[in-house]
Amino acid sequence: MATPKPSDFNKRVAFGLTESVKNTNTGSIRKQFVEKLKLWYAPKTRTLDQQYQLQGTSLENTKVIIVRHKPELEAYTLAKIGNVQYDIASISPDETNKAVAYDYVTLKRSE
C-alpha cells in the first residue's frame, strides 16, 4: 500500500482494556471496555488474493487499520469502532526514525 495521505485518516478508533467497573446505582461490579486512547485511522483494504490466503487461519475475518505510530499501543488488548468491539490480534509497529511512522493493527471482532 502506498503511504496513506492525511485525508485517509478520517475514522476514529478507541483503544483500551477490560476492567472491573462499579455501577454507581447498584454497587455491582462488572467487566467492561474502558477507553484509554483514541486515534484517527485509515482502513487498509486487502486484495482478494490476500483474503483467500487467510481463509482457515486465525486471521480469517479480521480487518486491518493504519494509525500513526504510538509505542503505548502495545499495552492495549481491545479496540472499539463505533459500537463494535474488537480484540487486537496483532500490531505491526513502524519503529523507524521517520518523522511520520504508521502502525498496522489487525482487529478481530469480539464475540
What's the number of extended β-strand segments? 6
Helix content: under 10%
Task: Tell me the span between the first and last alpha carbons.
Answer: 30 Å
Average pLDDT, rounded to a whole number, is 89
Quaternary status: single chain
Q: What's the shape?
A: globular
Count of helical segments? 1
Relative strand content: over 45%
Q: Secondary-structure element order, as H and E?
A: EEHEEEE
**Rg calc:** 16 Å
Q: Describe the main β-sheet briefly.
A: 6 strands, antiparallel, barrel
Structure in words:
The protein is mainly β and 111 residues long. The chain is 6% helix and 50% strand. It has one helix and six strands; from the N terminus they run ββαββββ. Strands 1-2-3-6-5-4 form a six-stranded antiparallel barrel. Strand 1 and strand 2 form a beta hairpin. The longest helix is centred in the middle third of the chain and has 7 residues.
